[in-house]
Amino acid sequence: MTTMTENRVDTPALRALIAAEMPGLLDIRHDLHAHPELMFEERRTSEVVVRELTTLGIAHKTGLAKGTGVLAHLPATERTTRPAVGLRADMDALPIIECTGRTYSSTHHGVMHACGHDGHTTILLGAARVLSKLAHRPNPVTFVFQPAEEGGAGGEEMCLDGCLEGDSGRGLGPPVARMYGLHGWPQLPLGQIGTRPGPLLAATDDFKVTVRGTQCHGAYPHLGSDSILASAHIVAALQAIASRHTSPTDSIVVTVGALHGGTATNIIPAETTFIGTVRTLRDETRALARQRFFEIVQNTARAHACEAHIEWEEGYPVTQNDPKLAGQVLAVAESAFGAPRTLLVATPSMGGEDFSYYGRHVPACFYFLGLCPPGREPLNVPQLHQPDFDFNDEALAPGIEMMCRLALSETPR
């Protein structure tokens, strides 16, 4: 076993432990990549996680978050009243046909790890391996392996199942007092750590609108009510939410992703549907956007002698980083990797993350881990959710080191 002091991590020893684990961890990452599973279907992935935890002798619970979530706990190496540090990884894949050409490409046609969750899971397993081998571990550590980040709110399900409560509730060990999570980020240089206090990622609300008019012949439009024309005006008018109803400095995105209506060139259809998403960074803006969305859709449809039915699906909350924890993540990263590999992110991303649910219960910080290889232009490498994306294996070691250092760190004051 390797000894490390509470306030001063023995960097060479820590990196030697990580290096010793890398061959096995690479095999795990490639295996997970070759066997991706969609949200709430991560049965094989959970089995891999449980196998690893069992081998390490780490206590764990299974069957969480509708069946595939795994919770594990590693106690401190001495008696302590300290609460646990929580570390999280997501496990699910996406319904995308892979075209990376890797030898370990997906064996499940139409499903692939296009968001790097295979890398996230491997990093957390690597952290569990390394931390379990330390002779001095000042903090209890809780590992959260959650399903269904890609739209299923698996993070919320894990919280509802008590993963933060400790063994006095429905969890393991002492209650979790602070949470950390990461995401591989192709737009940052390899191994760079980036985060910011406050909002890092957006709230994600989705919608489906059905506009109903009266079908008629295309040559006689005055005999009907044109649902396509009404929909076109609605789509254009919705952009006024961002341009005229919110401050220019208040970030908001209203995107229509698909519009469907009609069956022939000479028929004006009775019904047209369109779907999309609204992204915001403040609760007040989120509420205003919803209100104006309903008003614009319904009134614009009415102005075109149509009616509109709205299905509004409230998505993930804003991923809001605790300022003290964000400062700690940046300080730990700079201490470990140096200032050039530490980034205070200037502006939030309008992507969304269900890590946000943990921050509703305890102070939390989410951070980015750079994936872009040296010598490559970050915006010219495959990005998240693209069919040629693959998690960079070279980012595993810094990702594991960062998780270990946060698990060993004191609570920031």
Structural topology:
Blueprint lengths: L10 H24 L8 H14 L2 E6 L4 E6 L9 E7 L26 H16 L8 E6 L7 H7 L15 E14 L3 E3 L2 E4 L1 E10 L3 E2 L9 H12 L1 H5 L7 E10 L5 E2 L2 E10 L2 H21 L3 E7 L5 E3 L1 H15 L4 E3 L19 E9 L23 H13 L5
Parallel strand pairs: 3-4, 3-5, 5-16, 6-15
Antiparallel strand pairs: 1-2, 2-4, 6-16, 7-14, 8-12, 8-13, 9-11, 10-12
Helix pairs in contact: 1-3, 1-9, 2-3, 3-9, 5-7
Name the structural class. Answer: alpha/beta
What is the top-level CATH class of the largest domain? Answer: Alpha Beta
Number of helices: 9
- By CATH, the topology of the largest domain is Aminopeptidase
Rg is: 24 Å
Percent of residues in beta strands: 15-25%
**Net shape:** elongated
Name given to the CATH architecture of the largest domain:
3-Layer(aba) Sandwich
- Assign a percent range to the helix content: 25-40%
Order of helices and strands: HHEEEHEHEEEEEHHEEEHEEHEEH
β-strand number = 16
Number of domains: 2
CATH superfamily of the largest domain: Zn peptidases
| Overall pLDDT level | 96
**In order across it, which strands form the biggest sheet?**
1-2-4-3-5-16-6-15
Largest sheet: 8 strands, mixed
Q: What separation lies between the terminal Cα atoms?
A: 30 Å
Low-confidence stretches: 3-7
Structural commentary:
- The protein has 9 helices and 16 strands.
- With 413 residues, it is of the alpha/beta class.
- The chain has 2 domains: 11-201 and 318-408, Zn peptidases (Aminopeptidase, 3-Layer(aba) Sandwich); 203-313, 2-Layer Sandwich (Alpha-Beta Plaits), CATH 3.30.70.360.
- The protein has an 8-stranded mixed sheet with strand order 1-2-4-3-5-16-6-15, sandwiched between helices.
- Helix 5 packs antiparallel against helix 7.
- The model is unreliable at 3-7 (pLDDT under 50).
